[in-house]
Write a structure and sequence with these properties.
Number of helices: 22
Structural class: alpha/beta
Number of strands: 18
CATH class of the largest domain: Alpha Beta
Bound molecules: adenosine-5'-diphosphate
CATH architecture of the largest domain: 2-Layer Sandwich
Shape: extended
Strand order of the largest sheet: 12-13-11-10-14-17-18
Oligomer: single chain
Distance between the termini: 95 Å
Radius of gyration: 36 Å
CATH topology of the largest domain: Ribosomal Protein S5, domain 2
Length: 628
């Protein structure tokens, strides 16, 4: 029986042979039953697949028949005309768009495909979408307008207070553009905290050149396709943000601001910064290729300006091509003038108020700046001013007719309790507590470094969301203090029975960089020597293991932050003395600066009493253990 069943069924030859070779009847039956079970399973699956396929085919046939019927009905009712009309409209738009020969050919080819297609074919939708993009994009080059530098200077001055260096750099850039007749060389990058006038300067440049202005944010982009578009084969595909921006501007030569290029990332979906470079580079952007458009688009007449809050996170390949213009943030005095001349008149107009109805006392403007904002830019200041006007507008709308003079008291009434007290006002000279200076995305900032000692085993604990570099400078600071025990007046094994905890408060904000080196070291020295640190001293500087103080970046931002916080004395590296020319005179007058080369000088200024060496005699250094 086994033999006849095996022979009748379509088993593989090798399986049949196996059964034939078996002797025991039980084994043969067992093997046959396994093979039969497998065969049954295969038949079941193939039956299921074939019934599913059949269902799908019949559904598709049904849909096709229904579509054809619908088409006939529409034709009866005269709807087919709309299809022809659509084709005619596209023809007209293509003719008017001013496309180059290559693009024109492409558009005509797609249109011919569309004309042949049933409008119910899903592909017709894609083609229609594509043709809409092609015909909506500006293709015709604008007439070249010459750059009038005097006018540009006038407009920049008219729209902005201060920013002398920025304005100068921009005028130089425009002068080169005027002479070269084309955008050449590096791409402008405005770097600075929010609300320092980057966008607003961009708009003024556009106004000065008589061009459209468009701003596109790149924050959070990780995918190359966001810049360069998705291929048309993807459902819902679109051109990238560059082409979208151009369409929105409606001109081939806008001033195009790419915001937040420090916030683009790269991952497995490709590197957006490479695509961005291709779009920005004047040498190769004449034929920028967007995956969706498939035809080259000429970006060479676009004036690109990029912006960033910080430089560090911009991908290096991109950073190399940027001409950085820094917006360091404003002093209180600059903010006052910006508010008086620009923000207040602008907000007054926005709220439908007239200048003869309402007036700000100078002191009340300063009260807003001091008590209700703490920022490098003027964004919150503008918001608070607008809040004041809202309250006044309501009173006027309710029928009040007298002229308003806004006093400091009114400000407290309108804006509520003071939000920010001067940071250092309530601080005391303390042991193990140092004021450092740093630069974050929001501009310069004071930060406090706290060190505390507790019984332990010589461990160093660092907390407050510190980055790797800052942690390492903490360790270096500790090693420096340990190696200098004698001159600091400490016992040789002073650290062995204690743990050192270094904390930088406001733990939610990540902090990094080497420039807190001298502050960390000072805090540790103060904690061990039990000598307090002057409360009005702030400091910034990198420190080496030998105690040499090295140059840091962003001095202006840091000094302005110190000034805002009410610091009196600033310690900074001697190599940074050259940066002092950027710092406004009256800030220099308010602060006392110490330019230092070595950690010893820092301690002399910062500690209320300089460290005393343990003894006047030089301390002999014992030979290393392996030599003994
Ligand atoms: P950013 O782009 O740097 O974040 P904005 O350009 O949006 O900042 O500036 C915020 C507001 O402050 C705008 O209303 C701008 O006009 C105003 N502003 C900033 N700096 C100045 C300045 N120097 N003079 C006049 N107005 C300024």
């Amino acid at each position: 029986m086994v033999n006849s069943v095996t022979q009748a069924i379509d088993f593989k030859t090798i399986d049949k042979q196996q059964i034939l070779e078996m002797v025991s009847a039980a084994d043969r039956l067992q093997r046959l039953s396994e093979l039969l079970a497998k065969e049954i399973r295969i038949l079941e699956i193939s039956q299921k697949i074939s019934s599913q396929t059949q269902e799908r085919v019949s559904k598709m046939t049904k849909e096709a028949i229904l579509r054809e019927q619908m088409k006939s009905i529409e034709e009866e009712l005269g709807g087919a005309d709309t299809e022809h009309q659509e084709i005619r409209e596209f023809e007209l738009k293509i003719k008017k768009a001013g496309m180059s020969k290559e693009v024109l050919e492409r558009a005509r080819k797609e249109l011919a495909r569309l004309a042949k297609m049933s409008s119910y074919n899903p592909e017709a939708g894609y083609i229609r979408n594509y043709l809409e993009w092609l015909t909506d994009l500006p293709w015709r080059n604008e007439k070249k307008s010459s750059v009038d530098l005097k006018k540009a200077e006038g407009i920049l001055e008219e729209d902005h207070y201060g920013l002398k260096k920025v304005k100068e750099r921009i005028l130089e850039y425009l002068a080169v553009y005027k002479l070269a007749g084309k955008m050449r060389g590096p791409i402008l990058c405005f770097v600075g905290p929010p609300g320092t006038g980057k966008t607003s300067i961009g708009k003024s440049i556009a106004r000065a050149l008589g061009r459209k202005f468009i701003k596109v944010s790149l924050g959070g982009i990780r995918d190359e396709a966001e810049i360069r578009g998705h291929r048309r084969t993807y459902v819902g595909s679109m051109p990238g943000r560059v082409v979208q921006g151009i369409k929105q501007a409606g001109a081939t030569n806008p001033v195009f601001m790419l915001d937040e290029i420090d916030k683009i990332g790269a991952d497995y979906r490709g590197d957006p910064s490479a695509a961005l470079l291709e779009a920005l580079d004047p040498e190769q952007n004449e034929g920028f290729s967007d995956h969706y458009l498939e035809v080259p688009y000429d970006l060479s007449n676009v004036m690109f300006i990029t912006t960033a809050n910080i430089l560090d996170t911009i991908p290096p390949a991109l950073r190399d091509r940027l001409e950085v213009i820094r917006y360091p943030g404003y002093t209180e005095d600059e903010k006052f003038h910006i508010a008086k001349k620009f923000l207040i008149p602008k907000q007054m107009e926005n709220h439908g108020l007239k200048g003869d109805k309402i007036e700000f006392e100078d002191e009340s403007i300063r009260a807003i700046i001091r008590g209700y904002t703490r920022e490098a830019g003027v964004r919150n200041l503008e918001r608070e001013v607008s809040a004041v006007f809202r309250k006044v507008a309501r009173k006027i709308a309710e029928g009040e007719t007298k002229k308003f003079t806004i006093t400091v008291k009114d400000i407290h009434g309108f804006l509520g309790p003071i939000k920010f007290l001067p940071i250092l006002a309530e601080k005391e000279d303390e042991i193990g507590m140092v004021t450092g200076l740093s630069v974050t995305e929001a501009g310069g900032e004071v930060l406090f470094i706290e060190v505390t000692l507790m019984p332990g085993k010589g461990n160093l604990i660092l907390t407050g969301q510190l980055g790797d570099v800052m942690k390492e400078s903490g360790q270096a600071a500790m090693s420096y203090v340990r190696s200098r025990w004698a001159s600091l007046g400490l016992k040789e094994n002073f650290f062995q029975k204690v743990d050192v905890h270094v904390h930088v408060p406001e733990g939610a904000i990540p902090k990094d960089g080497p420039s807190a080196g001298i502050a960390l070291t000072t805090a540790i020295v103060s904690a061990f020597t039990k000598v307090s640190v002057h409360k009005e001293v702030a400091m910034t500087g990198e420190v080496t293991l030998r105690g040499r103080v090295l140059e840091i970046g962003g001095l202006k931002e840091k000094v302005l932050a110190a000034h805002r916080a009410g610091v009196k004395i600033v310690i900074c590296p001697a190599d940074n003395e050259k940066d002092m020319e950027d710092i406004p005179d009256y800030v220099q007058k308010d602060l006392k600066f110490f330019f230092v080369k070595h950690m010893d000088e820092v301690l002399k200024v910062a500690l209320i009493r300089p460290p005393q060496p343990a003894s006047r005699k030089s301390v002999p250094i014992p030979p290393p253990a392996y030599m003994a």
